[in-house]
Specification:
five-stranded parallel beta sheet; 9 helices; alpha/beta; disordered N terminus; 192 residues
Length: 192
């Protein structure tokens, strides 16, 4: 069996019908947006505030694959990573309410985006490029930034991705303020 085919990081998604508006409040809350916007940090705090479990999809992918995301990208390529990512997200959106932080490219994949929009509540976290560039400089292991200027890469990504992220029904601007301000804004949007 070729090595790429051996990478199975989640069970296949089971068919699931979209939730009705009455079930909306029981849906998972899925945070989408560019790298550095604070999906994981804000997600943990949002989950604590709402007394819900928190799951970082990237960590679940790494745990299931037994490899870092950087290793998965370099060894198997982005298409294999995206397929595994979709399957992990399908498993996480299992009908139990929780907060899920996704990787920046997850919502860009049509099948993954459809899955999130049909079975969860998508929340787009957005921020100015300067804020994002400063935040991503603090953390390594981002394959798309390897040997490149972070602000330049983020600008290119924003131009392509922001119109797609805008499909999320909730849009929250993350300001260079304490993360609790973003959590407050999400809670207000959820109760509107």
């Amino acid at each position: 069996m070729p090595e790429a085919a051996a990478l199975c990081i989640a069970p296949a998604a089971m068919p699931h019908s979209p939730a009705s508006s009455d079930e909306k409040h029981g849906r998972a809350l899925v945070l989408v947006g560019l790298m550095g916007v604070g999906k994981s940090t804000v997600g943990k705090r949002l989950a604590t505030r709402l007394k819900l479990p928190f799951v970082d999809a990237d960590h679940e992918i790494e745990r299931a694959a037994g490899r870092s995301i950087d290793e998965i990208f370099s060894r198997f390529g982005e298409p294999a990573f995206r397929d595994g990512e979709r399957r992990v997200i399908a498993r996480l959106i299992d009908g139990r309410r929780k907060v899920i932080a996704t990787g920046g490219g997850a919502f860009m994949q049509e099948d993954t985006r459809r899955l999130i929009l049909d079975r969860a509540t998508a929340i787009w976290l957005d921020a100015d490029l300067d804020v994002l560039a400063e935040r991503v400089a603090r953390r390594e292991g981002r394959p798309l930034l390897k040997n490149r200027n972070p602000r330049e890469v983020l600008g290119e990504l924003a131009a392509v991705r922001n119109p797609v992220y805008a499909l999320a029904p909730i849009h929250i601007r993350s300001q260079p303020l304490p993360h609790e301000a973003t959590v407050d804004a999400i809670v207000r949007a959820l109760s509107a």
